[in-house]
Design goal:
The complex is a heterodimer. By secondary structure, chain A is mostly beta strands. Chain A has strands at 4-5, 10-14, 19-21, 24-25, 32-39, 46-52, 60-61, 64-69, 74-79, 88-96, 104-106, 110-115. By secondary structure, chain B is mostly beta strands. In chain B, strands 2, 4, 5, 6, 9, 10 and 11 form a 7-stranded mixed beta sheet that branches. A 4-stranded antiparallel beta sheet of chain B has the order 1-3-8-7, with no helix packed on it. In chain B, a hairpin with a 6-residue loop joins strand 4 (31-37) and strand 5. Chain B is globular. Classes of the chains: A mainly beta, B mainly beta. The A-B interface holds A 33, 35, 37, 43-47, 50, 52, 55, 91, 93, 95, 100-109 and B 30-31, 33, 35, 41-45, 48, 50, 55-56, 58, 89, 91, 93, 95, 97-99, 101-111, 113.
Chain lengths: 116, 117
């Protein structure tokens, strides 16, 4: 079974509009971390936002927010006021278990295209 | 802002040759990782390293792979005899690995694009 599912292989959004990228995860652990990374065409992996499983509030970082619904095991990324530079691949990732140095499992990614 | 660095950015090698990919993690980080991403596919975990030893490795990380921290700053991935299917982007990452909120975040280097001919 897939640990991280991203059901949208590709998404389009108009510049200045908000967009939601879906991520659902599968774990039986109580302690886990959820992460979003951006990968532009140049290839690097840029950390965007983190949500801990015990965090009561949804994480926010500037224009990025994470819609964390623990019961549904979803951790959707919301990008507000999209910019052309937001066009990239976006990966959802999870760290499971109590060991905070545990490896990450990545989803297949969503390619976001921002239209002018 | 501190960042993870990797060298070289690109490497082309012949099948069967040995390659060493180099990484300098963020200086106060304690956990180090290697991931790979075959073109157009998702990022896959290879190995994690803590306290001068491997703490976890995936099925991909077979006897052809090894990691080393030869000094206080570098962290290397060696592929002894490269195969065509080793062609991929290889990412190094590091994390603080503490238990305070966010310290587990892994910061990735820019990657080394390896092409095996």
């Amino acid at each position: 079974a897939q640990k991280i599912t991203q059901t949208q292989p590709g998404m389009f959004v108009q510049e200045k509009e908000a967009v939601t990228l879906d991520c659902t995860y599968d774990t039986s652990d109580q302690s886990y971390g959820l992460f979003w990374y951006k990968q532009p065409s140049s290839g690097e992996m840029i950390f965007l936002i983190y949500q801990g499983s015990y965090d009561e509030q949804n994480a926010t970082e500037g224009r990025y927010s994470l819609n964390f619904q623990k019961a549904r095991k979803s951790a959707n990324l919301v990008i507000s006021a999209s910019q052309l530079g937001d066009s990239a691949m976006y990966f959802c990732a999870m760290r499971e278990g109590i060991d905070y140095g545990q490896n990450f499992v990545f989803g297949p990614g969503t390619r976001l295209s921002v239209l002018p | 802002e501190p960042e993870v660095t990797q060298t070289p950015s690109h490497q082309v090698t012949q099948m069967g040759q040995e390659v060493i990919l180099r990484c300098v993690p963020i200086s106060n980080h304690l956990y180090f990782y290697w991931y790979r991403q075959i073109l157009g596919q998702k990022v896959e975990f290879l190995v994690s390293f803590y306290n001068n030893e491997i703490s976890e490795k995936s099925e991909i990380f077979d006897d052809q792979f090894s990691v080393e921290r030869p000094d206080g700053s570098n962290f290397t991935l060696k592929i002894r005899s490269t195969k065509l299917e080793d062609s991929a982007m290889y990412f190094c990452a590091s994390s603080e690995a503490g238990q305070a909120r966010g310290q587990e975040t892994q910061y990735f280097g820019p990657g080394t694009r390896l092409l095996v001919l």
